[in-house]
User: Fold this.
Amino acid sequence: MKQELSLIKMQIKAERILSANRHNGIKKKALFLDFDGVINIYYAPDSEKYKEIEKQSEGNYNFADKECVKRISDLCLQYDLDVVISSSWRYSGLEYCRKYLQDAGMSKAVCIIGTTETDMMRNRAEEIYQYLIAHPQYAGMVVFDDCTMPQLSKVQVITNMIDGVDDKAIACAEEILRKF
Assistant:
């Protein structure tokens, strides 16, 4: 109950910041990005696609789907979004995540600016709200994740581990972003 109350307080504070920024003419938006199930999609180990990616990655096992990454990259450029890594991959560090995304085709013009906290034991929604509170320059956001977060339902695009970010997910993100 205490943790739930804390999340509600963080949500209210973050939403007030976003709203005040919109009221003051600020347009900047953030994209919170999970990797697994979003850009890293599941291929059965015996499938041709798995073998192709395994060969292409030359043992590095970069399973980021280039089409998924391109869709995210194009969205970020179109809407001038800052990317914040909310994935557990953030524990490998921002530079590692940035290189991973760029190696998979993310445009270098996309601003991959940070990660949610790595030293807190919070759920992902709390981490996202905490980031927004600590970085109050945003007027809106969109969250790509394959795990449902009810507290973020108005701004979350839920993907699945088979398709990742497909055209339908991008259309949903654009609908969310147009509201800000």
